[in-house]
């Protein structure tokens, strides 16, 4: 038995050495394989998973007041116009899932709603600052550039405006998908891809990075576009139905866990996008 175990260990060690040698050979021959290794090494060096978790926590804290303000105001307007606020929440993707937990318009008086909305607006600005700092820190570490802090009120306003626009576009995309069937789903995927690519390309240019042309940030924007499509489909065809089935069992805890999973995946994509751009730039410089 001992001899058998020793032989298996020896075989595993030799196979590990062989696979590593083969991968190194392929890495020298293929630029794509080498780039993949560089991205993985950079992610391991900066602690990509930990950064994604920290970023996800900041995104979640920012989402709560944003969702409260948006859906409280829209809920009041919908009721005044005779529309169903619940349908609006169902069309809003992950924001609508969170809204089902944090927004209770019918249970509040007018003055209470006004007070809560004002408090949520203040909280939204505070958490926007925290999210911006987290994004800047991630890009400092990944790109290895001098520290630059977001200054003034303008970056917070841009982030809030960008989030409101993304929420409105998300509702519009889901309306298109629901109204046009398969054709609507194809159009929705195209819109999510194009808008995510353009938006994150611009955001990546504004966040800290090493001196490089704008086209050097395209790979990360492509990764974000693909990731946004995956998140959109995940939310529409899995998370939304899962929450609807399990709400009675797990309640608000289940919804919070679903949203946290969603924002962690988003944070991982953001970190991966920055890492991909940085790794490809380092590879070009070291040729």
Would you kindly provide a written description of the structure presented here, covering whatever features stand out?
The chain is an all-alpha fold. It has one domain. The chain is 86% helix and 0% strand. The protein is built from eight helices and no strands. Helix 3 packs across helix 5. 32% of the residues are buried.
Topology:
Elements lengths: L1 H28 L1 H16 L1 H34 L3 H6 L3 H9 L7 H34 L10 H53 L11 H68 L2
Helix pairs in contact: 1-2, 2-8, 3-5, 3-6, 3-8, 5-8, 6-7, 6-8, 7-8
Can you describe this structure in just a few lines?
It contains eight helices and no strands. With 287 residues, the chain is mainly alpha-helical.
Q: Can you tell me the residue ranges where pLDDT is under 50 for at least 5 consecutive residues?
A: none
Fraction in helix: over 70%
The percentage of residues in β strands lies in under 5%
Gyration radius, rounded? 23 Å
Number of domains: 1
**How is the quaternary structure best described?**
single chain
Count of distinct strands:
0
* Gross morphology: globular
If helices are DSSP runs of H or I spanning 4 or more residues, what is the number of helices?
8
Terminal-residue CA separation: 51 Å
SSE arrangement, N to C:
HHHHHHHH
């Amino acid at each position: 038995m001992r001899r058998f175990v020793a032989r298996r260990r020896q075989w595993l060690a030799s196979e590990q050495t062989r696979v590593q040698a083969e991968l190194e050979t392929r890495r020298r021959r293929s630029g794509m394989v080498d780039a993949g290794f560089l991205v993985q090494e950079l992610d391991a060096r900066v602690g990509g998973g930990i950064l994604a978790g920290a970023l996800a926590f900041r995104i979640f804290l920012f989402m709560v007041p944003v969702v409260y303000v948006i859906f409280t105001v829209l809920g009041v307007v919908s009721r005044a116009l005779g529309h169903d606020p619940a349908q609006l929440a169902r069309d809003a993707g992950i924001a609508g899932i969170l809204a089902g937990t944090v927004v209770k318009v019918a249970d509040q008086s007018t003055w209470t709603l006004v007070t809560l909305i004002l408090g949520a607006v203040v909280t939204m600005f505070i958490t926007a600052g925290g999210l911006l700092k987290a994004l800047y820190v991630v890009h400092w570490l990944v790109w290895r550039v001098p520290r630059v802090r977001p200054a003034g009120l303008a970056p917070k306003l841009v982030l809030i405006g960008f989030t409101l626009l993304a929420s409105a576009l998300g509702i519009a995309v889901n309306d298109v998908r629901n109204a046009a069937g398969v054709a609507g789903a194809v159009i929705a995927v195209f819109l999510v891809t194009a808008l995510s690519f353009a938006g994150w390309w611009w955001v990546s240019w504004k966040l800290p990075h090493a001196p490089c042309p704008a086209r050097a940030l395209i790979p990360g924007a492509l990764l974000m576009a693909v990731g946004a499509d995956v998140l959109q489909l995940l939310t529409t065809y899995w998370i939304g139905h899962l929450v609807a089935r399990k709400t009675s069992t797990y309640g608000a805890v289940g919804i919070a866990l679903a949203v946290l999973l969603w924002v962690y995946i988003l944070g991982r994509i953001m970190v991966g996008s920055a890492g991909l751009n940085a790794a490809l730039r380092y590879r070009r410089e070291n040729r």
